[in-house]
Amino acid sequence: MKTEIVWLRNDLRVADNPLFGGDPRPDQLLCVHVLDRRWLADRRIGPARLAFLWQCLIGLRGELLKRGSDLLVRVGEPETIVASLAEALDATRVRVRQEAGWEEARGVARLRRRLEAVCPVETQESGTLLDTPRLPMAIEAVPPSFSRFRRRVARAWRVPGARGAPVTLPPWPSGAPRGLPALHEVCPTAAAWRASPAGGFRFEGGEAPARVRLEHFLWGSGAVARYRQTRNGLVGADFSTRLSPWLAHGCLSARQVHDALCDWEDEHGANPSSEALRSELLWREYFHWAARQEGRALFGGREPPARDSRFEAWCRGATGVPFVDAGMRELAGTGWLSNRARQNVASYLIKDLGVDWRLGAAWFERCLIDYDVASNWGNWRYVAGVGRDTRERGFHILRQAEHYDPEGAYVARWQPALAELAPGMARHQPWRAAPGAFPAPLAVPDHWQEALLPRPDQGAWPHRPGGPS
Ligand SMILES: Cc1cc2nc3c(=O)[nH]c(=O)nc-3n(C[C@H](O)[C@H](O)[C@H](O)COP(=O)(O)OP(=O)(O)OC[C@H]3O[C@@H](n4cnc5c(N)ncnc54)[C@H](O)[C@@H]3O)c2cc1C
Predict the structure, then answer these.
(1) Which residue's CA is minimally distant from atom 6 of ligand 1?
(2) Which domains does the chain have, with CATH numbers?
């Protein structure tokens, strides 16, 4: 009797998941996900992500049950739990996805050592567009910059199609535990977590909601046709795909998105917007392969410094810079943030407040529902200009605000007191437009000394000398 264990981590789907296509097919199969207890203890996973994760797990369990299988979810130390299950079931093989993160790879190495005398532990690449054989360079040779990576990949660009979901799966090992704990038993705060309605979009974890969103973005709303013009948006549901939480948890694979995009192009023709979306998927790819190359170095080496009052104010959305504070409030209220806002809040923290980038990356890890080890830590390093690509980057936040939120609609949404000021640059510099009513920012970089004045059509400011009451 061959009994296998599939250890699911950030690949919470049945479609295009090679772990379910094991050859030869085992007689019995146990599927398990383990929430690492240390993440809860160290506050590395916040309530928003935990709530989303639980939705993904419940959805996945439904898909597995439909196919004659089931899901076991445990909270604890993942390698220990998977090893105990393998020993108790006398498993013939454990299969797990090859994750990008160093910690995850170390966990697999530990499991392999522990099960040396029991069964092999096999890793399988999935979730990305490419895989090691199709990557046009060795992982050790992934170039330091994205543009060089893209040039190399574009020369031999061939993405395999996604596989379908299995129709049936082997039966559950007799007597083996199954089911998942209620979220309120694991974390009452996560069970009670609700996204702020100001976010204007509701994310729901799971494979089915992921497909609905993909379908909507491509075929339902046709938003993909405008993506190149809208992707730097801040307000609204469809300026970008918002697929990141599902991609990060593996409810959707990048190949599934790519296939759908190709289908759309077959009907409508490729255009700069569909190409731009493909290019974003390539950014994800770049960070994935870069993380696998870098290992532990991705996290920046030594321990980060202690948190200080500047960092705390940034986390709370209380720096006094509306464009930054709006982003941080959106993050706290919804667990998600547009790419434009992420870049700006990160830049202000690192370049203007002078705070260590690793504190920001760790805060994002806790708050984001789309947290992905490679994309998060890779993007933070990129903005900080450390590690593989050390070019100087830094935004003039007020100019960014002027360009991407000219009326101040975004900041007023997350800080309603700003709506009292006339639409325009006053809302981005309330300490200048209504001194006394709004505090001065924690840091005013030298290049902001000159106020960015309203456009002629926006009139002079301050509009209300005392500012809002
Ligand atoms: C400081 C910082 C931290 C970030 N942390 C994460 C993270 O933890 N997880 C995450 O998925 N993305 C992260 N990103 C990248 C990017 O901001 C998000 O992927 C994107 O905003 C998600 O929205 P979307 O799905 O609508 O993206 P779209 O614009 O619709 O793009 C489609 C997909 O392409 C991928 N993608 C787009 N931009 C990037 C990028 N710069 N890097 C990597 N992949 C990208 C994502 O998978 C995304 O879902 C971070 C960016 C910054 C600047």
Answers:
(1) 376
(2) 3-126 (3.40.50.620), 127-162+208-298 (1.25.40.80), 300-469 (1.10.579.10)
